[in-house]
Predict the 3D structure of the following.
Amino acid sequence: MSDRYQGFVSTSIGQLFVKNLGLPNPTPLERWSEGAPLVDGVVVLGGQGRLAEVLPTTLDGLGIASAAGLEDGARAKALVFDATGITDTDGLLVLQEFFTPLMRRLETCPRVVVLGTPPETVSGSERIAQRALEGFTRSLGKEIGRGGTVQLVYVAPAADGAISSTLAFLLSPKSAYVSGQVVRIGAHGSTSTDTVDDWTKPLAGNVALVTGASRGIGEEIARVLHRDGATVVGVDVPQAASELQTLMTELDGDHLVLDITAKDAPQRIAHHLREHHGGVDVVVHNAGITRDKKLANMAEDRWSSVIAVNLTAPELISRELLDAGVINAGGRIIGVASIAGIAGNVGQTNYATSKAGVIGLVESLRDELSDGITVNAVAPGFIITQMTAAVPFATREVGQRLNAMSQGGLPVDVAETIAWFASAGSGAVNGNVVRVCGQMMLGA
């Protein structure tokens, strides 16, 4: 599953076409490999807000080097700006003063993170100024180029000590295909501080349930969660039983073969997790199907099957696991939505409805949960899989280029984002829906 266009433009002939015809020129993205540092270079810090003092210590604890500025001729791998001190619109000038001199001094695939205060927690001019940060970061994400990413992280005052996990993800190559996003830490009653003994194995001792785990994105989710220390329980339909069993054997995990839309599926899953593992710490609702057709031509079974698999099953399974007390304290529920649920797609009214519903599930549960349990979702854009490889060439090319990075993502990009949500250090990350789409030009 390769990007043939990206391979072509990396050649000398391809570069001539790019230069003369103004074609997209995607930068190969850096992705994290086990044993590599989180950040290979220096992070330059700026801003004078309430987080300025804790940032150097926080980054040092992650093994990330930081500095207050750059020496002549030096380049930065990442920029982190504490904008929590901006209390009026005149104060927004500090963004230009800090970033403008540094934008041409960034290495390839750089990271930019702006930290702010949730606008809904302040008022007057400060609320206006903090909300303005969203326009700044989203626009900069479309300007930065060279495989770079830009994010805005709103940190509630009570969650100042809970930013390590999010910075580790957003500053590292793990977030290669995540850009232009707004993340909230400490929202919806969740303000627990980071408690991770080993940042190389943040899921050590955890049990993780992954539906649709036998192939594609689900397989990669299982692999990444296993890499981070979790015991994975994979779930898939009988037709995929052989692949599922092979994968789980490789990962020293467990498997459960069933149709998640079956009437007794939630109870069977709950029973299996309780009896064989004593509960579950991470629940990933990855299983999903498409049955594309314009609404005027859509049969009832195409509609009902997509809603049943993509939305009703995750809701019923989540409710059963919660009501039965199977999800352990500090547990994580993670849904897989889609950019289609945000921006819509021709021929996908059923699919988009189901994926918007996953976002609704996050919004429904986020204020109901107790015992430190959180709920979040990823919303993938164009991810290169065997399924997308079968899409007609022209349609596939448009899908891959219609984002700030001019390329499709990989299953590992979705998996890494889910692993961040799942981390023991992400207890204050609750109620978020983060797009994994290379900052797609469509949608909010």
